[in-house]
């Protein structure tokens, strides 16, 4: 399994409440530790939340597939940086649901 497929699966499982990150290790160069979550049980009673999560995940996929376009404006951030910032913002919004 490729790293991108694993990361996508991990994001989807976390978004829908099947996984919960118990310890973040990215900044300390350690692996993050995940637990099985029971949050998914409560999603069936809130269909609007499910739709919102699905919308955000689809938006995340679209941004991932966008090719980096060079911008002529010298004051703006590079396209790769803007893309990464957009992805992080959407991931943060997904995980805060």
Polypeptide structure, described:
- The chain has helices spanning 3-15, 47-65, 79-95, and strands spanning 19-23, 33-36.
- With 97 residues, the chain is mainly alpha-helical.
- It has a two-stranded antiparallel sheet with strand order 1-2.
- The radius of gyration is 16 Å and the shape is globular.
- The two termini are 28 Å apart.
- The model has no long low-confidence stretch (mean pLDDT 82).
Would you summarize the structure shown here?
This protein has 97 residues and is mainly α.
Number of strands: 2
Shape: globular
Distance between the termini: 28 Å
Residues in β-strands, percent? 5-15%
Specify the structural class.
Answer: mainly alpha
Percent of residues in helical segments? 40-55%
Count of helix runs: 3
Mean pLDDT: 82
Please give the radius of gyration in angstroms. 16 Å
Question: What characterizes the major β-sheet?
Answer: 2 strands, antiparallel
Major beta sheet, strand line-up = 1-2
Strand and helix order:
HEEHH
| Weakly predicted, low-confidence segments | none
Distinctive features:
single chain; 97 residues; mainly alpha; 3 helices; 9% strand; globular
Give the helices and strands, then pairings.
Blueprint (H helix, E strand, L loop, with lengths): L2 H13 L3 E5 L9 E4 L10 H19 L13 H17 L2
Antiparallel strand pairs: 1-2
């Amino acid at each position: 399994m490729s790293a991108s497929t694993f990361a996508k699966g991990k994001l989807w499982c976390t978004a829908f409440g099947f996984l919960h990150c118990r310890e973040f290790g990215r900044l300390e160069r350690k692996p993050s530790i995940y637990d099985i979550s029971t949050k998914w049980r409560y999603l069936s009673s809130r269909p609007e939340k499910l739709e919102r999560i699905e919308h955000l995940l689809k938006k995340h996929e679209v941004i991932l597939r966008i090719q980096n376009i060079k911008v002529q404006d010298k004051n703006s951030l590079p396209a790769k940086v803007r893309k990464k910032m957009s992805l992080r913002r959407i991931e943060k919004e997904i995980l805060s649901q």
